[in-house]
Design goal:
Number of helices of chain A: 25
Structural class of chain B: alpha+beta
Strand order of the largest sheet of chain B: 2-1-5-3-4
CATH superfamily of the largest domain in chain A: NADH-ubiquinone oxidoreductase 51kDa subunit
Largest sheet of chain A: 5 strands, mixed
Radius of gyration of chain A: 27 Å
Strand order of the largest sheet of chain A: 2-3-1-4-5
Largest sheet of chain B: 5 strands, mixed
CATH architecture of the largest domain in chain A: 3-Layer(aba) Sandwich
Structural class of chain A: alpha/beta
Helix content of chain B: 25-40%
Strand content of chain A: 15-25%
Oligomer: heterodimer
Number of strands of chain A: 21
Number of domains of chain B: 2
Strand content of chain B: 15-25%
Order of helices and strands of chain B: EEHEEEHHHEEHEEEEHH
Helix content of chain A: 25-40%
């Protein structure tokens, strides 16, 4: 299908929408977590079960007919049914997830053995109870639809909205789910300036972490005196534990490209580049597939929909250096040079890629654009808070019961995300901290759990929004060790161009390694703080300027742990090797013996009085006893000093 | 022209000039390492950091690259600037203690090497002046390779390369004395590569490698004299010929 005019596309859209009735769809989650749990095989088996002649190639889906009971009359009706793979649906912890549309039912931990049951339940038009998705209590929901599952019910899915109900490969699916309404509206009834103003009015801020107003950026690029302008997608997501942009590029690539196309129209650009790291091969493949389909459909290329607007998109694969997510390094990398940042006293909107005015936005920012144009800036502003409109996608990971991809309105508190959506800390352990913003962000303690999640509040609290990684930590996490982890990461990812980042992070790493290995010296915490200030002030790019945040935020909220590491060489969390001892409090011990059974070093002995004791010589300090003891009788205490 | 102040002194500056340039014109001292007047600035050493007040927002910037586009006030000796400068210098002396330029700056600003963080001494501060000089020549024989702490200057694959013409521009602009070469009559070795150096038939100095003259496009039959003598011979020829006329 090729659309030569705006009305071609509008008519086709109406045609597709009319076909929507009388359909059943079985969607299998194709997010990385579910794929690892066997969702591809599951999808192949579903396809075979519907039609044994079906190709096992699940990249395309086929319509089959199925007889479905329409209760309560118990009449049979012929329905079309198909099965296919979607992008990430979000509840990664309980994958593989199967989603039945239009009933909106979710099933978890589905195996090949459940196929018959699920197909049967569709025919019977009732939920399949055995694998119905469960609530935080672990009990399966009676009717496992989104509103009955807390993990899904408390979310506001805007950019992730289509992802569990369509094939990321199918342009028809995207159009049927409202896709390309934004571009039609822009080209049909809005001038480029109006599009720019609409985005400005929406208050959309850059979702990559900086939070710069997107409309202002567009406007300044639009007003620059140059013939050539570029629009770029920053798909170089590299924060440990973050997978929001990956999910979007894999699960809804058309929305990113539609947003980019609208942006190009608004700022007067005819060339767009999507920069994706090569470690995201599926994202690259899906984006390439989308670009090909869109070119064939006439939605990319010369004279789009007969409006005279030309726009071409290319993919540029990055080598996977973390620093290439920094805007100037990304552009240097696209130019074919080593991905190293350059001094940015002149904005990219004036002098960016190949010295031409450039708008660079994050994947999620672009994916928001079609929604804003379709529904208007006022609607967008009604979501979220005053200065932080819209939603934000987070990768909720770490020691939380329900890990996964979540999208919430800005201003939702950390507590709501971690407890109401995530179900709280895994194994009901005490909450210690949540890390947001990746290596440039920081760790916030329990006292900050009611902080609303928006750009300004998180920065004020000493962390940052970042691109949306959210790592939950329990009491078995040493905060000094966490700072060490992030600084290790950054030492490995620093490009080495400027002195403070290259040498300063190395020095910081040496202090942190001393602190976490029992060699801390008096004054180390203060030295870290001073160094952090120096590095932040003098580093060339945002990586170095924010690199000290993990250290500064942990010192701010967990100073006592630093002091213990520094002065007493004690790690209260039982993480840093050689800096603690594990003992059993005989008063609290109820002689259950679980610790002894679970001790991999076989070093817990039973005393004559029935209580247990850890033989210190053999203890490898793995913490297994600590975790299994139901009575909290296992304690982490200071190592006896050799002088004593 | 734009009116700015540096340390309170009013100065008129051409639009687009850097803070460093403006300061140097007014004899205000700002230390530099990676900056070189003949090369494009790179802003990587951060030693030239100064504090600016730009419409009420105060920040540290690299003076060698910050273009003056509106009226700002610049301070080169505030506590924050001193801390920034000392942080950089401290980090440099921990790794580059033997470089004379670093020693001089440390003496000037009172920075001492920290034994605890003393790294294996290296002369190179990764300022990339050599790389920029080579690039300016168009030869591009060396590049900063590896990243982070391991970043260093090298020819491709650390091997001798055809791209190197033995011009020693890199060694000439190196501020720390890291880049060295061996020179004996008629021979020069740099970046693992040995060059023959041609001798001037008039004054006898060894003036250029064959590769340099190739790169400059000098004819094979026109390689007998050094630049100085060549000029002398040309001018004698010119005078004799005009007298004849």
């Amino acid at each position: 299908m090729r659309f030569d005019t705006l009305s071609d596309l509008k008519n086709y859209k109406n045609e597709i929408l009319q076909k929507q009735d009388k359909r059943k769809e079985i969607w299998i989650c194709g997010g990385p977590g579910c794929v690892a749990n066997g969702s591809i095989i599951l999808a192949e088996e579903f396809a075979k079960a519907l039609d044994n002649k079906a190709s096992s190639d699940v990249s395309t889906s086929f319509w089959h007919s199925i007889k479905v009971l329409i209760r309560p009359e118990e009449n049979e009706t012929e329905k079309l049914i198909r099965t296919g793979i979607t992008g990430c649906m979000g509840p990664c912890e309980n994958g593989p997830i199967v989603h039945v549309e239009p009933d909106g039912l979710y099933y978890q931990k589905v195996t090949v053995d459940d196929i018959e049951g699920i197909l049967g339940s569709i025919k019977e038009n009732i939920p399949y109870k055995a694998k119905a998705m469960s609530g935080h209590d672990g009990k399966p929901a009676e009717v496992p639809s989104a509103e009955n599952i807390p993990f899904l019910a408390k979310q506001k899915k805007l950019v992730l909205g289509k992802m569990s109900t369509m094939s990321p490969l199918d342009l028809d699916d995207y159009i049927a789910h409202g896709g390309y309404s934004g571009l039609i509206k822009s080209l049909d009834s809005m001038t480029p300036e109006e599009v720019c103003n609409e985005i400005k009015a929406s208050g959309l801020r850059g979702r990559g972490g900086g939070g710069f107003p997107t409309g202002v950026k567009w406007e300044s690029c639009r007003n620059s005196a140059s013939e050539t302008r570029y629009v770029l997608v920053n798909g170089d997501e590299g924060d440990p534990g973050a997978f929001m942009d990956r999910a979007l590029m894999e699960g809804d690539p058309y929305s990113v490209i539609e947003g980019l196309t609208i942006g190009a129209y608004a700022i007067g650009s005819s060339e767009g580049i999507i920069y994706v790291r090569h470690e995201y091969p599926l994202a690259v493949k899906r984006l390439a597939n989308s670009i090909k389909n869109l070119e064939e459909a006439g939605l990319l290329g010369a004279n789009i929909l007969g409006t005279g607007f030309d726009f071409h998109v290319e993919i540029c694969k990055g080598g996977g250096a973390f620093v290439c997510g920094e805007s100037t390094a990304l552009m240097t990398s696209i130019e074919g040079k080593p991905g190293v940042p350059r001094v940015k006293y002149i904005r990219s909107t004036e002098k960016g890629l190949w010295e031409s005015p450039t708008v660079l936005n994050n994947v999620e920012t672009w994916a928001n654009v079609p929604h804003i144009i379709t529904n208007g800036s006022e609607w967008f502003r009604s979501i979220g808070t005053e200065n932080n409109s819209g939603t934000k996608v987070f990768a909720l990971v770490g020691k939380v019961k329900n890990t996964g991809l979540v999208e919430v309105p800005m201003g939702t508190t950390l507590r709501q995300i971690i407890y109401d959506i995530g179900g709280g800390v895994a194994q009901n352990r005490p909450f210690k901290a949540v890390q947001t913003g990746g290596p440039s962000g920081g760790c916030l303690p329990a006292s900050m759990l009611d902080t609303p999640v928006d750009f300004d509040s998180l920065t004020e609290a000493g962390s940052m929004m970042g691109s949306g990684g959210m790592i939950v930590m329990d009491d078995r996490t040493c905060m000094v060790d966490i700072a060490r982890y992030f600084i290790d990461f950054l030492v490995g990812e620093s490009c080495g161009k400027c002195v403070p980042c290259r040498e300063g992070l190395k020095k910081m790493q040496m202090i942190l390694h001393d602190l976490t290995s029992g060699k801390g010296r008096e004054g180390d915490t203060k030295a870290l703080e001073d160094l952090a200030e120096g590095i932040s002030d003098t580093s060339l790019c945002a990586l170095g300027q924010s690199a000290a945040n993990p250290v500064l935020s942990t010192i701010k909220y967990f100073k006592e742990e630093y002091i213990e590491h520094e002065k007493e060489h004690f790690c209260r969390s039982g993480v840093c090797p050689g800096m603690f001892r594990v003992t059993i409090d005989e008063e609290k011990c109820k002689s259950c013996g679980l610790c002894s059974k679970n001790c991999p070093a076989d070093t817990i002995e039973k005393l004559d009085n029935g209580k247990y004791r850890i033989k210190q010589d053999g203890c490898i300090k793995c913490g297994a006893c600590f975790e299994v003891c139901p009575f909290s009788s296992v304690e982490i205490v200071k190592e006896v000093s050799k002088d004593d | 022209m734009i009116d700015i102040t540096i340390n309170g002194i009013p100065i008129k500056v051409e639009k687009g000039a850097t803070i460093l340039h403006a300061a140097q014109e007014s004899n205000i001292d700002i230390p530099t390492l990676c900056n070189h007047e003949g090369l494009v600035p790179d802003g990587n050493c951060r030693i030239c950091s100064v504090e600016i007040d730009d419409r009420g927002s105060k920040k540290i910037v690299a003076s060698c690259m910050f273009p003056i586009t509106r009226s700002i006030s610049v301070e080169t000796e505030t506590g924050r600037v001193q801390r920034a400068r000392n942080t950089v210098l401290q980090l440099l002396v921990n790794r580059n203690p033997k470089s004379p330029i670093i020693q001089q700056l440390c003496d000037k600003y009172g920075v001492i090497r920290e034994e605890r963080f003393a790294l294996e001494p290296d002369l190179c501060i990764r300022c990339g002046r050599c790389v920029r000089a080579c690039e300016a020549n168009g030869t591009k024989a060396i590049e900063l390779v590896d990243r982070g702490f391991d970043r260093h200057v090298a020819p491709p694959y650390e091997l001798e390369t055809d791209a190197c013409i033995g011009c020693i521009s890199c060694a000439t602009v190196c501020p720390t004395g890291k880049i060295t070469y061996e020179e004996s009559p008629g021979k020069r070795t740099i970046w693992h590569k040995e060059f023959n150096v041609l001798q001037c038939k008039r004054c006898g100095i060894y003036f250029a490698t064959k590769e340099m003259l190739d790169w400059a496009g000098r004819e094979e039959n026109d390689r007998d004299y050094c630049d100085h003598c060549q000029k002398y011979i040309e001018s004698v020829k010119f005078i004799t010929e005009s007298q004849k006329k």
